[in-house]
């Protein structure tokens, strides 16, 4: 049976749960502030608490792979379990791994995150197109085959990103616009939403690019990086209805109690609803 495409599953999740994505970023400083040791037991407790608190209510959970990789194979085992438990509880899992390499190696990353038989299979994964959009083909094809999604970096939330992403391509477009146009082509004809998303920071002010890619727009940078839900209409304009606003530390700092995490997520969800409906 053909799996339901990620874009359709995400649209449904956004419409029923609201569009908020909460990142699972087990920073050493957060483990400490939760009263946990910065070791594998602390990582396991932090991750389990976050998944149990939020996976039954937010649309998307986004584990940041780097914070699990730093513990080696035991960290990856915690990540595998988190992915499985979050998906079982109804959240879509977006693996924030930002993979990017030549196409043949990209095939191995695709097998890791986008093959349903892999222990790290996720609903979607973040990738970098700055080895050329075509290098992403193995991931795009694997995602389409498994009903998963791919979020491609376009304009990242960090200020350093602009020197690359705003640079001008040979035909006069910015590199970010070039990548966004590739994403629009991948999503052409998809309904209700394509499965190839763009990462566009909520920190950018007016994004200054055409965001009509017929796909989701992941917006990190809310909370610890200084953006707020009120910034979303100015950054995303007419595309704001396709935005998946993402918050990690802004929610996680309210742990370790599940109620603190839930209330923080609910506050962000309310603010997002207000900002988007008023735009
Ligand atoms: O442009 C980007 C792309 C990804 N990220 C990731 O999102 C979270 C942000 O964490 P906060 O604690 O909410 O600042 C983190 O995992 C980044 O690697 C991003 O910030 N910007």
UniProtKB/TrEMBL annotation:
InterPro entries in alphabetical order: Aldolase_TIM (IPR013785), OMPdecase_AS (IPR018089), OMPdecase_type-2 (IPR011995), OMPdeCOase_dom (IPR001754), RibuloseP-bd_barrel (IPR011060)
Lyase listed as a keyword: yes
Cross-referenced SUPFAM superfamilies: Ribulose-phoshate binding barrel
Record key words, sorted: Decarboxylase, Lyase, Pyrimidine biosynthesis
Reactions it catalyzes: orotidine 5'-phosphate + H(+) = UMP + CO2
Any one of the GO BP annotations: 'de novo' UMP biosynthetic process
Catalytic class of the enzyme: lyase
This enzyme's EC code(s): 4.1.1.23
Gene Ontology terms for molecular function: orotidine-5'-phosphate decarboxylase activity
Pathway as given in its UniProt record: Pyrimidine metabolism; UMP biosynthesis via de novo pathway; UMP from orotate: step 2/2
Domain Orotidine 5'-phosphate decarboxylase: 19-264
Catalytic residues as annotated in Swiss-Prot or TrEMBL: 98
Cited Pfam families: OMPdecase (PF00215)
Keyword presence, Cell membrane: no
Stated family: Belongs to the OMP decarboxylase family. Type 2 subfamily.
Entry-linked PANTHER family: OROTIDINE 5'-PHOSPHATE DECARBOXYLASE (PTHR43375:SF1)
HAMAP family for the chain: OMPdecase_type2
Name of the protein described by the UniProt record: Orotidine 5'-phosphate decarboxylase
Source species: Kitasatospora albolonga
């Amino acid at each position: 049976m053909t799996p339901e495409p990620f874009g359709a599953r995400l649209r449904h999740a956004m419409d029923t749960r609201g569009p908020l994505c909460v990142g699972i970023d087990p920073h050493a400083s957060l483990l400490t502030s939760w009263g946990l040791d910065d070791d594998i037991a602390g990582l396991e407790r932090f991750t389990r608490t976050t998944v149990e608190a939020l996976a039954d209510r937010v649309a998307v959970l986004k584990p940041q792979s780097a914070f699990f990789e730093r513990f080696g194979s035991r960290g990856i085992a915690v990540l595998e379990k988190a992915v499985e438990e979050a998906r079982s509880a109804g959240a879509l899992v977006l693996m924030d791994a930002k993979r990017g390499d030549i196409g043949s190696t990209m095939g191995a990353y695709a097998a890791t995150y986008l093959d349903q038989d892999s222990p790290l299979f996720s609903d979607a994964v973040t990738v970098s197109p700055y080895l050329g959009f075509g290098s992403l083909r193995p991931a795009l094809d694997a995602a389409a085959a498994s009903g998963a999604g791919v979020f491609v970096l376009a304009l990242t939330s960090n200020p350093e990103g602009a020197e690359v992403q705003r640079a001008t391509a040979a035909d006069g477009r910015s590199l970010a616009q070039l990548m966004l146009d590739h994403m629009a082509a991948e999503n052409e004809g998809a309904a209700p939403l394509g499965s190839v998303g763009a990462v566009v920071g909520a920190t950018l002010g007016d994004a200054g690019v055409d965001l009509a890619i017929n796909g989701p727009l992941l917006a990190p940078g809310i909370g610890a990086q200084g953006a707020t839900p009120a910034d979303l209409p100015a950054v995303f304009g007419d595309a704001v209805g396709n935005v998946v606003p993402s918050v990690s530390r802004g929610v996680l700092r309210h742990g370790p109690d599940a109620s603190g995490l839930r209330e923080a997520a609910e506050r962000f969800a309310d603010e997002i609803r207000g900002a988007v409906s008023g735009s």
